[in-house]
Amino acid sequence: MNPSRLVLCGVVTLAASHSVQAADIQTVPAIELQAEQNDNFGLDPGGSPSSTTGYVANAEVLFSIATPRGETLLLPRVRYQDYQDIDNIERVETFLNADSTYRWERAVFIVNGSYSKRDVYNTETLDGSFDPNDPGDPGNPESGTTTTGETRQLLEVRPNYEYRLTQRLGLGVEAAYQIANYSSTDAVTKSDYDYALVGGYLSWSTSERGKFRAGAYGSTFETDDGTETVDALGGEIGYGFLWSATDGIEVTAFYEQNDITEITPFGTEKVTTSDVGGSLTAYRKLEVSDWRLALSRRFAPTGDGSKSTIDELRLQYDRDLSERLHLRGAGRFESRRGLSDISGGNDRDYARVDIDLRWFITPTWYVGGGYAYIWQDREADPGNADNNKFFLRFGYQALARR
């Protein structure tokens, strides 16, 4: 069995283990149909913009399993896309998310898992909205090459276990594991890789609402062909404060050293880099609106064959303009650089802004439309490029019981 599928089966089995007697199980299906017009779909910086009309369909079912000790969310999703004059795009994309929390009297265990198979173009043109079930997920962007016809399969598992030593002091262990595989109808331009991280930390509850943590971690990145490895060690501190169940702020800072080894036809090249990073996340829910902000610098694995430095800003704002009319605005700005000269080559700046209006015909059926502006400036291109996208939507989402 493929190792990625084996790990995915383990995640789903662990998440589904909460569906025992006395569990409260509910399902929330959703479907959405979209027609869109792009004036430069391929983000071509030259004089021949790739204007195209596209049709997209999404179908998903959210399974929520609640027990006295925890909750599990399973979200399988299928996306179909078809664009005029673009034949090599991956038409059917598949997704599976599994998020599970389990609590004991003095401990809590959380595991987030996901699997996706999608066209690399869509991994490179992410919007700024946050996953409602896993808002801390940055979305795993790629290397900034927006060509179609190349597919990425990505498996990610992020477990976290924390044990409360005293009423205020806790000891935690966390990990992350990624497997990325690429395929293409033509030549594959990216590198399959494995990435693993393991860390430990101490947490201190400064009050009922505030929590401080400090820890250390190690990670390793390796391409499947063995041409590059990146071994990292780091230390981090962080603080989070909740004003309420829906309002809060989290701040982290870390220092990381990366030892990069690259094997070339001319020999082995090694370099060591070190830098600081961190994140700021703030969120608030008001009577008719809510917003979330995330600002971060991280050193993340990509299909470039190495890790990259990613500086990112994301913002999402939702507002009920009336009982039936809903507005969402989302934005993302990202600047990507190679960790060193030997791991560079796909540096880019990227920005996207989305405005989405939905009018609910009934509590479950809606129509809507909106606009997206996408811009990028790649080091490898002679200039920057942008795309204006207009879209219309029609959809259904069942109501949850809670």
Question: Hey, roughly how much beta strand do the residues contain?
Answer: over 45%
Report the oligomer.
Answer: single chain
Q: Helical percent range?
A: under 10%
Structural class: mainly beta
Give a count of the beta strands, DSSP E runs of length 2 or more.
Answer: 18
Count of individual helical segments: 2
Taking the sheet with the most strands, its summary is: 18 strands, antiparallel, barrel
Tell me the overall shape: globular
Mean pLDDT: 88
Rg from Cα: 22 Å
Summarize the helix and strand pattern as letters: HEEEEEHEEEEEEEEEEEEE
Distance between termini? Answer: 39 Å
The residue ranges in which pLDDT falls below 50 over 5 or more consecutive positions are none
